[in-house]
Amino acid sequence: MKRRALAAILAVATAAALATACSSSKSSGGDGKGLALSTEGKGKTVTVWLQGDAKGWQDVVDQANQRFEQETGAKVDLQWQNWQNYTTKLDSTFAGSTGIPDVVELGNTQMASYMAAGAFADLSSLKSKFDNSDTWMKGLLDTTVYNGKQYGVPYYGGVRTVIYRKDMWQAAGITTPPTSLDELYSDLDKLKAAHSSDPNFSAFYMPGQYWYAAMTFVHDAGSTIATEKDGKWTAQLNSAEAQKGLENWKKLATEYSSGGATKNEADQDGVMAKGHVATIFGSGWEMGVVADPKTGDPKLKDQLATFAMPSETAGKFMPSFFGGSDLAVPAKASNQGLGAEWLRIFTDQKSMTALAKYAIPNSSSLLDTYQSQSDANKISGQAAQQTWVTPTSPNWANVESGNILQNMLQDIVTGKSSIADATKAADDKIDSTLNATG
Prior knowledge:
It comes from Jatrophihabitans cynanchi. Pfam families: SBP_bac_1. Keywords: Signal, Transport. Residues 1-21 form the signal peptide. Belongs to the bacterial solute-binding protein 1 family. The chain is an alpha+beta fold. It folds into two domains: 3-158 and 324-388, D-Maltodextrin-Binding Protein, domain 2 (3-Layer(aba) Sandwich); 160-321 and 391-434, 3-Layer(aba) Sandwich (D-Maltodextrin-Binding Protein, domain 2). It has 18 helices and 15 strands. The chain has helices spanning 3-21, 58-72, 86-95, 111-116, 138-141, 166-171, 181-194, 211-220, 240-255, 268-273, 286-291, 336-346, 349-355, 367-371, 375-383, 396-401, 404-414, 419-434; strands at 45-51, 75-81, 103-107, 145-146, 149-150, 153-158, 160-165, 226-229, 232-235, 279-283, 304-307, 320-321, 323-328, 360-361, 387-388. The strands form five sheets. It has a six-stranded mixed β-sheet. A three-stranded antiparallel β-sheet has the order 10-7-11. Strand 1 (45-51), helix 2 and strand 2 (75-81) form a beta-alpha-beta unit. The longest helix is centred in the first third of the chain and has 19 residues, at 3-21.
C-alpha cells in the first residue's frame, strides 16, 4: 500500500471509530463497546465490493442480498471488482472521503497491511454473532486477526493439489496415486522413461520460480518462511529443515521438469494442454482451464484427476498453501453496522452451505458438504485440513513484489547458488523487509 494512502487512513481511523460508536442504529448483538450490527436500513444503500470470482456463485450472492434487503429495508449496490490493480483502487478510495464501500473483499495475503494501517473496523465484539466463527478455517482466520483483534471475516478458500493425466500415468503402469514422496519420485521415473523420446516432456512440470510449491515442501520438512516473536520477524529458510525441503523440491524441478527453470507457474495449464506434461501442482479450477476449448484441449476433460501432494513421511500429505478471500468493513464506511449485517448474512450457515457447491467454505464444519460435490473436491477438502499461509506481516507484500523467493528459487534450480547460500541471502532480505519501519 502506498505510504500516502496509509497516512490518510491512519488519520481518519480514530474519527471513524468514534462515529461508529456514536451511531444510533438498532443493535442486534453489539455489547456497547464496539461496532453493533444494524437492521435499520430503510432509505439506505449498502455498497459491496466483491471480486468477479463470485459471479461463479451468483445464486449465493443473490439469496444473501434478498435476505438482507428483506430484513433491513436497505438496498444493496453490488459493485464487481477485478483483482488486477485492485489494491491501487483501494488505496486511492480509502485515501479520500467519498465513495467508500461498506464491505470489501481482499485476498487473504493482502489483509495484513490494511489491518495495520487501521483501514478496517474492529469486529471483535461481533465475532460470536457470525455463524461457525468457532470453526472458521485456520488458514483464513489467521489472516483476519491483527494484534489480537478481529478485523475481517473469512470468506472462502482454495488449495493446490497434484493434477495429473490419468492416461499417461496408466500407460506407464501406474494404477494408484503415490502415498509418499519416494513413491512419487518412483512413479515419475516410470513416466520419464515412458516418454524418453520427447525432449519437451515433463513428468512433473515444476517451474523454477514457483514459490507456492517450493514453500509447501519447506513446510512439509517442518519449517516455515518466517516466524514472529515480540514484534520481530526472523526468516527461517536457512534452517536445516527448510533446506531439506528445498532439496526435495529441487529434485522435482530439475529431474522431472523441462523448460521452466526461469519461469513461474502462470503458463502451466497451457503447457499441460499441449500434451507434453503428465503432472502439475495447481488449484482445482485449473483442470477446467487445461480442458477448456478456448484455452486448452477439451479431449483431456475426462483424463484429469487429482491427489494431495504426498509427504516425505509415508501415509501423510504435505500442508498446502491456503489461498482465498476475506471480507471486511472499512473504517471510513458510512454504513458500518449495516455492512457488518450484510457480511453476517453472506457468511452464515445458509450462505456458506450454498457456497460449498463451488469453493471451500469458511468453516471446517462444512468441509463434508464441499467434499461430497466431486472427487476433486474430496481431495482438495482433504488438503484443506492441513494448510499454511504467508507471514501475517504488514510488509509481506514487499517480499512478494521484491521477488525475493522467486529469485532464490531460480538461483537454486539453475545452479547459480547452492541451497545454503541462496537461503542465507534470501533470509537476510526477508528479515530486513519484514522488519522495516516507516
